[in-house]
Structure formats: structure tokens, C-alpha cells
């Protein structure tokens, strides 16, 4: 059994997000790093698992994306990463959430299929599979209830799923519930967070088939809130798009922090190897005043990765630094 974990995703403070101090933790033991990996905490140990990278060539050079199943563990902030095992199969771009009961990995996929499996890491207990195979969705937890929104069912899908699911971990025989979908466009790679019992959904990208039959993205900057019994409410639009920002978004006092994310401004940047990276600014949504503000910057440019509460700090491990390029760096944010 796992020892209960103190969930620090909601930091009890009144300071501004700009007061976060960021510093590097030991880098992951793979010089390429990973995008789309899973991260969480098991028995006080920080873990990162799965994900993808391009080993020899970038995608525009004909490189092949490789998928991984390795689980890495870091016992303490000044420690050394070690290999702690393997996932049931190579996996990436699902959702991982650390709850007081432990670390859960949900869905994801590889180059040929997406998955329905949901499982605790390091815990001998079963959780029901997703209603459908799903990857590139977003998720968060509120009062031991997991929420998942959007994503795509297959790697070649040209439309996003118009889905919103919940799973109540407090119920011994919990089953996935299909909730009313967000009134906005179906999306992938959105950002999600829970604050004061309300689930918040930000940005993401809608999909449609392009002239070549492959999926093309429509960049979204809308924002929504869902509360049980009330349903969905439209929130003020975001100051900018933030696709694939690290999730679940951390909460500081009354503010939800959307860290970085791809704003789409450089989607056609050439030459690709000189891409400047994704935005580093932090957007803060105040749930009390229902307003957006700028809240400083981070010293890194990382998307398709996780936010993990660990030892009174916010940890963002690896991710995609610019198109095709991963990072092995692991960053920690603490109050100054």
C-alpha cells in the first residue's frame, strides 16, 4: 500500500506566481529527454515514465518517433535518477495524476494505437479502463475525482473527441461517468486544473482534415469552468493560446497558473532547426475575480509534459523544448 501523499498542487499562499523561484533538479538520464512522458510520486519518490523522442533525425528530416516504457525514479532532490522498472508497454501522451492515494496513469498510446488502460503505479489495485481509447487529452483531480477532457481515439484521427469523463476514486466499484461535454470545440492538448471544487479548462487545439487528409490544428484561447450540478460556464478568453502547457496546472491561492504552452505564432517557422522555442510566460487566472494576468516567466520552454507536486515544490520534468527537440532537464519551482 502507498503511504498517503500530501497534494501540494494547491499552494496555500497569497503571493504572486511571479514570486516562484525556478532551479534545475538532476536531469533525466537520457541526453535526448522525452516528450509526452508520465510523471508522478510514489511513496515520496518522484518518477518519470515513458514518452517519445527522435533518436537520429528530426521529423522534417524523415526521422522516426520512438516510444519508450522505462520508469525513472529520483529519491531526493539532490539524488541521482535510477531505472525503477518498465511500464506494461511503451506509452506516451496520456494523462498522469498524483492523488493522495498514489500515482495514476490514464490512456496514452504509441505510433499505431491508443490505449484504454488505467492503472496505479506501484499499487496492486485495479481501475476501470477508459470508455474509449484516448491520448492527447487533458486531466486533473478534484476531491478524489479524476476528470478527463477531449483527446483523440486513434493516432490518425482528424477530429478531437467531444468527451468529458469522471472517475470517483472514493467509490470501491468506481466506474467512468460520461458528463456533459464542454460547449466549446472538441480539442486536444488543453490545460486543466481544479480550484475550489471547480474544474477549469483552458486552450488546446481543435482538429480538422487538411487537403492531404491529415489532421490540421485550429488554435484555441477560450476558457471554461465546470461545476457538478451547475454545468459549464464560459470564462474570459485567455490573453494568448497555450496548447500543450504542462498539466495539471498548479494552483496558488486563488490563481491557476498556465505555464508556457505553444501559442502557434511560430508554427511555420523556418528554418525549423532555428525555432526559438515556445513561450515562457506564465498566465494566471484568478478564480475570485475571473480575470487573467501575466505572472512572470519560467527559465525554460517546455510543452507536452507534467506538473508534479513533490516535497513542497512544483516539478516540471522534461518535455518538448521546440518542435522535434526534447529536453532531459527537470525544473523545480518554489516560493522565494
From TrEMBL:
SUPFAM superfamilies membership: Kelch motif (SSF117281)
Cleaved signal peptide residues: 1-17
InterPro entries assigned: Kelch-typ_b-propeller (IPR015915), NANM (IPR056734)
Keyword Signal appears in the UniProt entry: yes
Pfam family membership, one: NANM
Organism: Prosthecobacter vanneervenii
Keywords: Kelch repeat, Repeat, Signal
Record's protein name: N-acetylneuraminic acid mutarotase
Amino acid at each position: 500500500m502507498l503511504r498517503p501523499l500530501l497534494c501540494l498542487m494547491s499552494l496555500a499562499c497569497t503571493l504572486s506566481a511571479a514570486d516562484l523561484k525556478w532551479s534545475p533538479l538532476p536531469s533525466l538520464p537520457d541526453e535526448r529527454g522525452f516528450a509526452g512522458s508520465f510523471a508522478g510520486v510514489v511513496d515520496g519518490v518522484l518518477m518519470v515514465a515513458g514518452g517519445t523522442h527522435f533518436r537520429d533525425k528530426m521529423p522534417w528530416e524523415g526521422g522516426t518517433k520512438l516510444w519508450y516504457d522505462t520508469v525513472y525514479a529520483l529519491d531526493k532532490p539532490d539524488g541521482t535518477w535510477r531505472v525503477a522498472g518498465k511500464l506494461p508497454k511503451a506509452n506516451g501522451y496520456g494523462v498522469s495524476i498524483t492523488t493522495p492515494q498514489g500515482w495514476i496513469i490514464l490512456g496514452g498510446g504509441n505510433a499505431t494505437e491508443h490505449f484504454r488502460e488505467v492503472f496505479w503505479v506501484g499499487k496492486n489495485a485495479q481501475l476501470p479502463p477508459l470508455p474509449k481509447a484516448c491520448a492527447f487529452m487533458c486531466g486533473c483531480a478534484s476531491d478524489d475525482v479524476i476528470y478527463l477532457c477531449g483527446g483523440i481515439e486513434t493516432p490518425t484521427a482528424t477530429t478531437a473527441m467531444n468527451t468529458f469523463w469522471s472517475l470517483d476514486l472514493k467509490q470501491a466499484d468506481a466506474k467512468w461517468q460520461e458528463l456533459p461535454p464542454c460547449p466549446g470545440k472538441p480539442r486536444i492538448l488543453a490545460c486543466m486544473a481544479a480550484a475550489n471544487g471547480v474544474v477549469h479548462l483552458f486552450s488546446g487545439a481543435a482538429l480538422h482534415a487538411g487537403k492531404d487528409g491529415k489532421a490540421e490544428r485550429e488554435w484555441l484561447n477560450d476558457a471554461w469552468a465546470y461545476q457538478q450540478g451547475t454545468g459549464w460556464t464560459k470564462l474570459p478568453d485567455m490573453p494568448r493560446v497555450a496548447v500543450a502547457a504542462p498539466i495539471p496546472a498548479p494552483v496558488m491561492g486563488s490563481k491557476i497558473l498556465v505555464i508556457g504552452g505553444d501559442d502557434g505564432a511560430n508554427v511555420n517557422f523556418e528554418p525549423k532547426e532555428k525555432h526559438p522555442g515556445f513561450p515562457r510566460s506564465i498566465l494566471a487566472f484568478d478564480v475570485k475575480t475571473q480575470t487573467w494576468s501575466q505572472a512572470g516567466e519560467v527559465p525554460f520552454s517546455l510543452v507536452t509534459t507534467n506538473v508534479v507536486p513533490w516535497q513542497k515544490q512544483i516539478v516540471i520534468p522534461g518535455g518538448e523544448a521546440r518542435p522535434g527537440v526534447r529536453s532531459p532537464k527537470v525544473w523545480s519551482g518554489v516560493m522565494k
